[in-house]
Amino acid sequence: MALSENGVLVSQTWYRLAERYTYLTIDTLVVMPDHVHALLVLQPSAEGKQAHVNSPSRPCGTTQASLGAVVQNAKSTAARRVNLHRGTPGTPVWQRNYYERIIRDVEHLQRTRVYLAANPERWPE
């Protein structure tokens, strides 16, 4: 499956996250026509230890250095880039939430990698 121009923008956005978030490693990324699969590794960091929920400067919203913060940043940045490319500023690009799963052992990790790698082959043409 070849990425569209918007798919390339989304892929670039996700990979740039690892530059911004030093505690993040992108193990696997698969950009599909209508969704993204990302296998992310979040390491403990000073940033993560300093995160505050409902601090006075941030009364609500995403906790810093969390998976939610990473996904929120990726989705908002990618949406701005895609909408700029399409000439449709402010148009929704993503669904409201995301699905997460914790990988707890090596076997689960390997099965997940195989599933993600095969996902484009299962996409109907």
Give an overview of the whole structure.
This protein has four helices and two strands, in the order H-E-E-H-H-H. It is α+β, with helices and mostly antiparallel strands. The chain has a single domain, classed as 2-Layer Sandwich (Alpha-Beta Plaits). It has a two-stranded antiparallel sheet. Helix 1 runs antiparallel to helix 3. The longest helix has 20 residues, at 67-86.
Q: Considering DSSP H and I runs of 4 or more, what fraction of the residues is helical? A: 40-55%
In CATH, the architecture is 2-Layer Sandwich
Could you give the order of the helices and strands? HEEHHH
Count of DSSP helices? 4
Which fold name fills CATH's third level, the topology? Alpha-Beta Plaits
Across the major sheet, the strand order is 1-2
- What profile does the largest beta sheet have? 2 strands, antiparallel
CATH class: Alpha Beta
CATH superfamily: Transposase IS200-like
Give the rounded overall mean pLDDT: 86
Number of strands: 2
Tag the structure with descriptive keywords.
125 residues; alpha+beta; 4 helices; Alpha-Beta Plaits; single chain; 12% strand
Helix/strand layout:
Layout: H1 5-20, E1 24-31, E2 36-42, H2 46-49, H3 67-86, H4 106-122
Antiparallel strand pairs: 1-2
